[in-house]
Structures are given as structure tokens and as C-alpha cells.
């Protein structure tokens, strides 16, 4: 809630500035209609981070239309240096799953993203839609900056005599052996989020991943023979084989990390297996790691598949003493009633014997000697 409020506040300030700059250049953005369709279509109800080149920006009248006016918006100027912008942002703006990022590219907007990629900041949008109104090459999807985006698409105009020009959707399939950049559809007002952002990893097409591992993690990952390097077995191997079969990839393992460490942040550098992944020497690791704040900041983890439990163990109590076998069948109240009855009978009999009074004896005799 706070985030959205903060985003809205920031947007209000920026939008004010943008309006002043844009007013005289009304109507210059070639795909203005698309923007409204995207925001009121697939992106409906989602907070937006919008990158635009203010020099080729949008008209103030467009920004004031109802569909755009009510959107929670963070505006970003593509003319500013990307790295410096990134340093000032909150994690929510840079990484939140629910936020969609929309970049309205001008002819020179790639520089912003190159700077962003070089700055090694935590910019990692879940959804990024690039809109290139100038008909540039869709190969810009392969730029290093977009490597960490999960759902990525590009809208661009196609050279055609039709008016208005048709707008096509491109996406990047990084593991495809041929034509990594592919047209995945044609934009129309009805395009849904799932049509706009297609699954870019349906198969890894036989890719060989290099894993940073330590084959010393029973029963998850362990070495099966002494002499064969990297020949391993365990739960992780079974999981990798099953995934590799379904997603078409293979993998290589590492017998142990060179520094014989698991992975911790020491002097700003990651050690062990996590260090190998962090430095890009290996693609990922499947050993058994616990979570920490540093790790969740620096690495993506799968959902957890095993939970460690803690318990207390006590000595079992010895068997009950034998005499209790007689005592336990009845509750204390039953025993108390029995005792009270015994005392009562004792009292009556004592009275009877002691006093031997005729009257008393006559009175009680039917009770005490009923068969006489
Ligand atoms: C969108 O869908 C509606 C109904 O499903 C249809 O009437 C309309 O023509 C469609 N618009 C476009 C641009 O395809
Ligand atoms: C895996 O991908 C490669 C390369 O695209 C392909 O030649 C092979 O047939 C695929 N294997 C399976 C089982 O789909
Ligand atoms: C996997 O790691 C290798 C070795 O560092 C690297 O060359 C390759 O680009 C990585 N693959 C991916 C998909 O990141």
C-alpha cells in the first residue's frame, strides 16, 4: 500500500514536469493509441513504471485521458543515465512482480538501458514491454540489459502500406538454436497479457548447463564412485534428470568448489559454490542451502522443497509400579465413596454392638438381618 502511494506521489511530481515539456509537441509520438490500449487492456489495474524519452514524449492531452489518469505511475526519463536512476529506486519499483514496466523507446533510448546493465543494479522487472514506434530492428531484445527480465515483449510497426500501420509483437527465445527473436503475434485492442507475453522458455533445446556443486550432500547429492569425477547420485540428480527430460537440457557437475566453501558473503564477495555462480563461472547450483537475507538479495532460489525440523527428545518414563494396577481402575472419587461407605458401616455396626439397645436393634434388624 505504502509503495503504491509513494509511486503515485513520485508520479505526480514527474508528470507535472513532463506536461510542461510536452505541451508544445503534441501528437509527435507515433503510436499514441497503442499506449491507451495497453494500459486499459493487458495492463489494466497494474501499477506501471513507464520509461519515455521526454523529447519525443507523449502529448499532455493523452496523459490526461481517463485511462491513463487513474494509473499508478512511475515515470522515468530515458534521457537520464540509467545507472544513476536505478540507485535511487526502491526494490518495489525495480523488482516487484505486480508492477509492469513499459518503455516507449525513442531513437536513442538504448543508451539508458546500456547504462543500466553496466551499473549492476537490482533492476529486474517481471514484465517489460518495449514499444518501438520508429520501426527499429527487433534485435534490440538481445541487449544485455534485458537478460534478467522474465516476461519480455516488443511492439513495433511493420513495414506495410496499410494505414494505420500494423503493430506486431516480438519476443526473444534465448535458448532457441535458430531465430531467437521471433514474431509472436499481431497487436490488436483485444490482445491479452498471456498473448502479449508468451512463454519464452518452453524448451532449453538441448542446452548444457554448468552447475556449481559439491558432491558431498547426502542424500541429495553424493558421489557414487571414488575415481569418476562428477559421477553423482541422489535426490537432486533425479530431479535434474526429470527436469532435463521434460525441458530438454543436460548438465555438468562440479566435484567440489575450489575453495571448499558452501557460499557466504565475505568482504563483499561470495565464496564457495555461490561465488562461482555469482562470478558467472557456473550457471546455477543445486546443493542444499539455507536462506539468509544476503542470499535472497543476490540470488534467485527455487521454491523450497525440504523443511528442516527441530525437536526435543526425552527419556521415556519407566513402567508404572505393580501396586497401581489395583489403584488405577477407579477414580479418586470412587475410592473416596468406597472409603466413606466403609466408615459409615463401621460406625453403624459399632453403635449397634456397643449400645445393644432393644429399640435400636429392632429398628435396624430388618436391614441388617433381612433373612432371619
Ligand atoms: C475485440 O473483441 C470483441 C468481442 O470479443 C469484438 O467485437 C471486437 O471486434 C474485437 N476487436 C478487435 C480489434 O479485434
Ligand atoms: C532437444 O533439442 C534439440 C535441439 O533443438 C533437438 O535436436 C532435440 O530433438 C530435442 N530433444 C527432444 C527430446 O525434444
Ligand atoms: C552458463 O555458464 C557458462 C560458463 O560461465 C557461460 O558461458 C554461459 O553463458 C552460461 N549460460 C547461461 C544461459 O547463462
From TrEMBL:
<keyword id="KW-0325">Glycoprotein</keyword>
<keyword id="KW-0675">Receptor</keyword>
<keyword id="KW-0812">Transmembrane</keyword>
<keyword id="KW-1003">Cell membrane</keyword>
<keyword id="KW-0472">Membrane</keyword>
<protein>
    <submittedName>
        <fullName>Glutamate receptor ionotropic, delta-1</fullName>
    </submittedName>
</protein>
<dbReference type="GO" id="GO:0005886">
    <property type="term" value="C:plasma membrane"/>
</dbReference>
<keyword id="KW-1071">Ligand-gated ion channel</keyword>
<dbReference type="GO" id="GO:0015276">
    <property type="term" value="F:ligand-gated monoatomic ion channel activity"/>
</dbReference>
<dbReference type="InterPro" id="IPR019594">
    <property type="entry name" value="Glu/Gly-bd"/>
</dbReference>
<keyword id="KW-0732">Signal</keyword>
<keyword id="KW-0406">Ion transport</keyword>
<dbReference type="InterPro" id="IPR052192">
    <property type="entry name" value="Insect_Ionotropic_Sensory_Rcpt"/>
</dbReference>
<dbReference type="Pfam" id="PF10613">
    <property type="entry name" value="Lig_chan-Glu_bd"/>
</dbReference>
<keyword id="KW-1133">Transmembrane helix</keyword>
<feature type="signal peptide">
    <location>
        <begin position="1"/>
        <end position="20"/>
    </location>
</feature>
<feature type="domain" description="Ionotropic glutamate receptor L-glutamate and glycine-binding">
    <location>
        <begin position="219"/>
        <end position="279"/>
    </location>
</feature>
<keyword id="KW-0813">Transport</keyword>
<keyword id="KW-0407">Ion channel</keyword>
<feature type="transmembrane region" description="Helical">
    <location>
        <begin position="332"/>
        <end position="351"/>
    </location>
</feature>
Amino acid at each position: 500500500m505504502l509503495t503504491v502511494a509513494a509511486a503515485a506521489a513520485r508520479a505526480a511530481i514527474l508528470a507535472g514536469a513532463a506536461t510542461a515539456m510536452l505541451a508544445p509537441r503534441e501528437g509527435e509520438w507515433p503510436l499514441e493509441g497503442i499506449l491507451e490500449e495497453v494500459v486499459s487492456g493487458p495492463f489494466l489495474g497494474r501499477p506501471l513504471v513507464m520509461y519515455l524519452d521526454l523529447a519525443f514524449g507523449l502529448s499532455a492531452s493523452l496523459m490526461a485521458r481517463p485511462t491513463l489518469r487513474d494509473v499508478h505511475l512511475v515515470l522515468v526519463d530515458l534521457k537520464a543515465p540509467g545507472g544513476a536512476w536505478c540507485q535511487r529506486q526502491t526494490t518495489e519499483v525495480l523488482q516487484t512482480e505486480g508492477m509492469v514496466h513499459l518503455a516507449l523507446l525513442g531513437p536513442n533510448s538504448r543508451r539508458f538501458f546500456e547504462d543500466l546493465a553496466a551499473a549492476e543494479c537490482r533492476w529486474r522487472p517481471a514484465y517489460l514491454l518495449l514499444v518501438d514506434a520508429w520501426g527499429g530492428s527487433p534485435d534490440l531484445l538481445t541487449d544485455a540489459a534485458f537478460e534478467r527480465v522474465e516476461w519480455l515483449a516488443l511492439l513495433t510497426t511493420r513495414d506495410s502500406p496499410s494505414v494505420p500501420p500494423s503493430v506486431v509483437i516480438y519476443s526473444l527465445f534465448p535458448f532457441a538454436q535458430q531465430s531467437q527473436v521471433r514474431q509472436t503475434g499481431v497487436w490488436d485492442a483485444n490482445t491479452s497479457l498471456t498473448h502479449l507475453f508468451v512463454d519464452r522458455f518452453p524448451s532449453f533445446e538441448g542446452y548444457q548447463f554448468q552447475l556449481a556443486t559439491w558432491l558431498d550432500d547426502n542424500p541429495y547429492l553424493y558421489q557414487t564412485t571414488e575415481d569418476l569425477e562428477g559421477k553423482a547420485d541422489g535426490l537432486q540428480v533425479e530431479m535434474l534428470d526429470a527436469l532435463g527430460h521434460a525441458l530438454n537440457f543436460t548438465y555438468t557437475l562440479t566435484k567440489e568448489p575450489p575453495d571448499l566453501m558452501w557460499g557466504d558473503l565475505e568482504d563483499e564477495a561470495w565464496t564457495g559454490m555461490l561465488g562461482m555462480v555469482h562470478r558467472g563461472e557456473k550457471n546455477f547450483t543445486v546443493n542444499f542451502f539455507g536462506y539468509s537475507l544476503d542470499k535472497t538479495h543476490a540470488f534467485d532460489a527455487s521454491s523450497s522443497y525440504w523443511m528442516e525440523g527441530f525437536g526435543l527428545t526425552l527419556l521415556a518414563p519407566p513402567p508404572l509400579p505393580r501396586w497401581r494396577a489395583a489403584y488405577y481402575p477407579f477414580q479418586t472419587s470412587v475410592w473416596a465413596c468406597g472409603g466413606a461407605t466403609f466408615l459409615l458401616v463401621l460406625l453403624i455396626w459399632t453403635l449397634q454392638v456397643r449400645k445393644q439397645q432393644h429399640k435400636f436393634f429392632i429398628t435396624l434388624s430388618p436391614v441388617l438381618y433381612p433373612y432371619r
